Amino acid sequence: MRAASWMPMIAAVAACSFEPAQPADPMIGVDADRRVADAPVTTAQVDAACPGGDGDGDRLNDACDPCPDDADNDVDGDGVCGDVDDWPCGPRPSLPTFPSWNNGLLETVTVGHADIDDDGPIRLVAPGQVLTVRAGYSIFDCACTNCIDQIQVGLVAGGKQGCLYNGNPQCLSPAAGISTVTLVAPMAPGRYDLRFRRGNDTTCGTGADWWDNVVPDANTTFGAICVR
Fold first, then answer.
1. Residue 2 banded pLDDT, cuts 50, 70, 90
2. Structural domains of the chain sorted by starting position, each given as residue range(s) with its CATH number in brackets
């Protein structure tokens, strides 16, 4: 009786029709509705649509090449072809004219008019290049009138490399002037910001650590280099 009870079910299953499994599509490109994608464009078709030579050797004829003299075709994606891009580290940075740091109303440091190798605050440089940075500064300290203060400068990422100022600024009359420091560009390619930080050490020192081991924030950026 038990075997007989399965017979109707077996018959019902046998009566059902199944869609056979689809074989793997041997074509490389198949679109959403399973139609075979267009055949690859041939070199002859490219030459017909874009006549002329390929000056930069990127396999894209000059007539259709957005950067006919740049084989990397704007590698940093800033919309400027590499052969004329003086800042190949992404969008060219926009810097404040007089970046400033303050501790309430008690201390203020301002740095501005930076020149990197007498060519403005933004420079394209080589790995390990030695740079001369000149900038104006102003500092007053009413929090500790007998303290020795520094205006530390360096690169982020990186570290402190020197000081624009090292002295005892007054409270009512800011210490101001123009100073020069020597920096060394990193070896790794990329963008590096030139920033400053107020220190309260006895001297500027030669180490790379910022005062209190705190990296200056973006508001203190007064220059930038692109290492390439």
1. very low
2. 28-85 (no CATH), 100-227 (2.60.120)
Q: What band does 132 get if pLDDT is binned at 50, 70 and 90?
A: very high
| CA 223 – CA 164 distance, rounded (Å) | 14
User: Model confidence at 29, in pLDDT bands (50, 70, 90)?
Assistant: very low
Note the pTM of the prediction, 2 decimals. 0.70
pLDDT of residue 149: 95
Extract the tokens encoding 97.
């004219």
Q: How many CB atoms lie within 10 A of CB 66?
A: 10
The top-scoring range by mean pLDDT among 15-19, 57-61, 103-107, 220-224 is 220-224
String of DSSP letters for the chain: -HHHHHHHHHHHHHH---PPPPPPP-SS-B-TTSPBPPPPPPHHHHHHHS-S--TT-SSS-GGG-SSTT-TTSSTT-SSS-TTT-S--SSSPP---SS-EEEETTTEEEEEEEEEETTS-SEEEE-TT-EEEEEEEEEEEESS-TT--EEEEEEEESS-EEEEEEEE---SSS-EEEEEEEEEE--SS-EEEEEEEEEE-SSS--SSSPPGGG----GGGEEEEEEE-
> If you average pLDDT over every residue of the chain, what do you get?
81
At residue 168, the pLDDT reads 95
